């Protein structure tokens, strides 16, 4: 049940109708819980029991074990959640690497066939449950004794599959509050949803065929087309995931709930540090608070240890996206870039050199060069195909500037810039309700009619695979 499907629209409408028809907080919680279970069942009937079982296990440990021994409880929660994540997402990858390592020393072992079964959204809800357990341990909140509220925190269907990654102390109090319906709530929720829909179904799904075709056979295309495919994927994944996030925020807002923002103009960043403060913000914050800082962060440590912490964080952040060395390389590129970025501010350079690299256009170009170069490894199916794309881009031979891409591809890139400006202005700078009624109608109709004109019945959201 995709966000851009009729089924999701019907489920959302029926749930909202039932939700707002009662003023009982407990009954509203039951309605949201049932709708969320129905939503997940549409993806997998069996895995919904895995998810519910994991929630119950976390609830039992945090309510039963934490009061007696919070350290033991924390270890049980982390091991249980990471154990489930490892079993489904990384076991096959781990076994294959062990088999390869044994073959290098002369031991031939047949690799067992492990079925590729990945519960939808597992990386997201596992991270949410771990953050909840750590926050309890650090006494940032008290354990939720109502299993229904904990279930809604994890299962809430607008953000269940691909985030944003919520914090329990931010979201759970909203579940227990009697939300009030208002015109501002409806306008904001509807606008966020329509804007996300336009970005996903208009831009991302429109560009996807050109990107997919080029990355499927990079050797059949010239250097410029390979470069354009990389640029196209950067636009595609941004609009796909930003679109999903806005649709999630919009759907949640219609229930009166506020979810954390996930994007804030990442492609205008002038440093890699700034990029990660603006791209997939909830994941960046999670990695910072629950991995980088526990490793030691950057406080009172040697440069070597700080670099080590940055690299470990980003390598594991890459691996979080998928069991593939391509994702590890992607994370490694960003870890290295963050380390270089940090050393740049520590090392004394000639004032002329410093001025060149600190010049806003230059720092933006360098930042985007790193970001888009790393997208090659994120998108390519295999390492060899990623290296082929890199080779084609930097092989300036005859016919380099010839393109086989359709004019619609370039048209969508132009439309992306326009929608980027409008969406950013009306979601990050100030909410749609802060504008005049005339401008609200103008922005809303722009997104709505763009969706009608450029709508593409595309595949699922990119981040659903993670």
TrEMBL record:
Q: In which pathway does it act?
A: Glycan biosynthesis; alginate biosynthesis
Tell me yes or no: is S-adenosyl-L-methionine among this UniProt entry's keywords: no
The record gives the membrane topology as: Multi-pass membrane protein
The UniProt entry, under PANTHER family, shows: ACYLTRANSFERASE (PTHR13285), TEICHOIC ACID D-ALANYLTRANSFERASE (PTHR13285:SF23)
The lineage's top-level taxon is: Bacteria
Give one Pfam family, short name only.
MBOAT
Q: Which family does it belong to?
A: Belongs to the membrane-bound acyltransferase family.
User: What is this protein's name?
Assistant: Probable alginate O-acetylase AlgI
Subcellular location per the Swiss-Prot or TrEMBL entry: Cell membrane
Keywords assigned by UniProt, alphabetized: Acyltransferase, Alginate biosynthesis, Cell membrane, Membrane, Transferase, Transmembrane, Transmembrane helix
- Residues crossing the lipid bilayer are 38-60, 72-94, 114-134, 185-203, 224-244, 323-344, 356-377, 383-400, 407-423, 443-464
